[in-house]
């Protein structure tokens, strides 16, 4: 009897210990993609992105070089009462030759409306929903995706969430010079990326430059064209867009960012046009985090931060989302390394599930500005409820279940008075040569 009691107690204690301590899973292997032959004129790797006011860019690839860059669309299945013709491109990378990459902008589109569409007059019908005109709006966020078993888990969880726009702060395919990996990534994300706009910015894994032979970002720029022209930028590596009361600025960690650079000048120009009455929320995405207490990539963002943080602070940016470090970390409102009620909340979310695995080692003690840090795969959701409040949550891939592990109500800097308080300081920086 006594032995039975001791054994029962042991099992209970073991179970308690096992469940209390979350055991982080190992990295998962890169997915295998069986050859899936399609007629050469059928669209592959379909994804969409916002392209200026009430417009959407549809991107797809065909093996057939004579396939037209035409999108037919309408609000009922098979009822294509609208159409548009776009442009196409292709690229060579050593011995690899891409298919025909089509980019076609369609619109004007109604807000919060489901559209059915077909690419190149061939193949299956796709559908997407446009974002709402006003709050509430929900963003799904996952950086450093790759294409492993964990990527699939993250994408499955995002697919279960009700969201309007996907934000990806860099490191998409982890093709890493193997160009066919861009194609498999395009196929992997198509179910989600053909249904909701994917707004991405570049990471180091998009570079793929070879000295004297290949320029950087060739594949990325050809395949993931973002609305840089629509936002007055001269580079696909940095741009901005408005959606439902939020202005989002996608910065380029791997484009020049010094005070005399095109990117810095463009950022000043873009900020000078932001009207916080129209877009009370101001968000920034970039790849290399400025606030990072992980040992991984420690200090890599310092150069860009030294130049751009004063501008981001003066502009009262509400939230800065970064990737690169394969873990999750959230700050309090901070500026210049110190807690500041008018600073941005900085979130690192480079934990989409890539082949390199997690970044486990943190610097200790935990800095004052860092309030939550954990090395697990997962994704984030940002629901902007109205002009004053947004709800942020981080969902860890707990085995294969999404578990909400961090959450926070964020109050906008418009509502706290910071925007008004700093308007003179911002004007001074924007006016400086
Ligand atoms: Fe990275």
From TrEMBL:
**Which keywords describe this protein according to UniProt?**
Glycoprotein, Hydrolase, Iron, Metal-binding, Signal, Zinc
> What's its catalytic activity?
a phosphate monoester + H2O = an alcohol + phosphate
Q: What is the species listed in this Swiss-Prot or TrEMBL entry?
A: Citrus clementina (Clementine)
PANTHER family in UniProt: ACID PHOSPHATASE RELATED, PURPLE ACID PHOSPHATASE 18
Domain Purple acid phosphatase C-terminal span(s) in chain numbering: 344-400
Please identify the protein, giving its name as recorded: Purple acid phosphatase
This protein's record includes keyword Glycoprotein: yes
- Purple acid phosphatase N-terminal domain sequence ranges: 43-130
């Amino acid at each position: 009897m006594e032995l039975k009691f001791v054994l029962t107690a042991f099992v209970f204690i073991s179970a308690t210990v096992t469940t209390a301590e979350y055991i982080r899973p190992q990295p998962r292997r890169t997915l295998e993609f069986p050859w899936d032959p399609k007629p050469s004129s059928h669209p592959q790797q379909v994804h969409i992105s916002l392209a200026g006011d009430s417009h959407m860019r549809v991107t797809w690839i065909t093996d057939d070089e004579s396939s037209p860059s035409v999108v037919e669309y309408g609000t009922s299945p098979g009822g294509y009462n609208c159409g548009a013709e776009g442009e196409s491109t292709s690229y060579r990378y050593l011995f690899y030759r891409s298919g025909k990459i089509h980019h076609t902008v369609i619109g004007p589109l109604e807000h919060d409306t489901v559209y059915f569409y077909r690419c190149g007059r061939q193949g299956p019908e796709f559908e997407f929903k446009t974002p709402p005109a006003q709050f509430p709006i929900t963003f799904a966020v996952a950086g450093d995706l790759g294409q492993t078993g964990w990527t699939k888990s993250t994408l499955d969880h995002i697919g279960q969430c009700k969201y309007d726009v996907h934000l990806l702060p860099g490191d998409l395919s982890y093709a890493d010079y193997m160009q066919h990996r861009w194609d498999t990534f395009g196929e992997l994300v198509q179910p989600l990326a053909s249904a909701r706009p994917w707004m991405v910015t570049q990471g180091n894994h998009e570079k793929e430059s070879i000295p004297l032979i290949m320029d950087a970002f060739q594949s990325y720029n050809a395949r993931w064209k973002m609305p840089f022209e629509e936002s007055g930028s001269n580079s696909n590596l940095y741009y901005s867009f408005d959606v439902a009361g939020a202005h989002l600025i996608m910065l380029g960690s791997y484009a020049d960012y010094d005070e005399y650079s095109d990117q810095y000048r463009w950022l000043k120009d873009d900020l000078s046009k932001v009207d916080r009455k129209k877009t009370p929320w101001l968000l920034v995405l970039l790849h290399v985090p400025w606030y990072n207490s992980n040992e991984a990539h420690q200090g890599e963002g310092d150069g860009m931060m030294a130049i751009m943080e004063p501008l981001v602070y003066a502009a009262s940016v509400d939230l800065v989302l970064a990737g690169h470090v394969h873990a999750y970390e959230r700050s309090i409102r901070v500026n210049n390394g110190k807690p500041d009620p008018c600073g941005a909340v900085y979130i690192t979310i480079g934990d989409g599930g890539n082949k390199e695995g997690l970044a486990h080692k943190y610097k200790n003690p935990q800095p004052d500005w860092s309030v939550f840090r954990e090395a697990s795969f997962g994704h984030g959701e940002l629901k902007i409820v109205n002009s004053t409040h947004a709800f942020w949550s981080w969902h860890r891939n707990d085995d294969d279940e999404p578990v909400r592990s961090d959450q926070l109500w964020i109050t906008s800097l418009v509502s706290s008075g910071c925007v008004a308080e700093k308007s003179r300081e911002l004007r001074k920086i924007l006016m400086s040569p």
